[in-house]
Amino acid sequence: MWKFLNKVTKKLIIAIPVMMVSGFLFGLIFNAGFLKTLIIPFTFLMVYPMMVNLNFQKVFEGGDLKAQVLTQIINFGIVPFLAYALGVIFFKNSPYMALGLLLAGLVPTSGMTISWTGFAKGNIEAAVKMTVIGLVLGSIATPFYVQFLMGSTIEINFSKVIQQIVIIVFLPMIAGFLTRKYLVNKYGQKGFKKNIGPRFPAMSTIGVVGIVFIAMALKAKGVAASPGLILYILVPLIIIYTFNFVLSSVVGKFLLPRKDAIALVYGSVMRNLSIALAIAINAFGQQGASAALVIAIAYIIQVQSAAWYVKFTDKIFGPAESKEKVLKPTAERSGS
User: Fold this and answer.
1) What angle do the packed helices 273-283 and 288-317 form, to 10 degrees?
2) Which of the four CATH numbers 1.10.150.120, 1.20.1530.20, 1.10.3720.10, 1.10.10.10 does domain 2-335 have?
3) pLDDT tens digits along 178-190
4) Rounded distance, CA 50 to CA 39, Å?
């Protein structure tokens, strides 16, 4: 079971499109309305496991303040407004799809921020901080951004959005923190990292693919009626991710050390689409399915682009220093 889920986690590039097609076919054949009852359980499966693996104490460690500040400026001062502007341009007559684009650009960082930073040999400690800070700030800021930017075009129940964020983010966050504390006390920090912690991302994957399936099933008939809709949705999403990669790469290249720069890229480009999906579906009812469709498609671009970026990291920031290169001068000095 765990081996299978770990394989799915590593193959999200394939798993998410497969679940989208499966959800689409299911929604065409059956009445998918009953799937709404599964949204909350799958949402919990998405968010809670990620919270268990987050070490909130890392936030209070210093050493990378510049990288943290630059990351959050991109996350909250630039990307949401780009997403909103593109929503106005591309979805002028579909405000809930514009909402989906905004939500996809509003909640930064996910557990994959840390993973991809590690794959690219970046500063993992900085990535952990970015994940925690981005998650907390994004959750607090989301209802205000949505109200301010979209309040004139769609009906927003401000208190319901806040209520859903508490249920979707902060309750799992508290539960995850307490679970981690209990498991670390029981198995020790080393035992938790080696044997227990690695199992939780696989649980989160169940929630991700489940919500993607539900979002697609709920919108299947609408997509079938407008087959070019998915291609149309891809255009603003590709613009957002391309802009974000270029901007964060340039900022990191010229203003930060290599490891911090890589953390900044993944700390700003990777959005918490799981939480965005949950907010769209839980806080905006039937209309939220349109927003959820946009966010579900964003998964494809996000995972694909993150994987490809790892391959170009050395060309952009230069190769990582090997242990041999770092240790050699030390050995020479000790022998002189």
Assistant:
1) 170
2) 1.20.1530.20
3) 999 999 999 998 8
4) 17
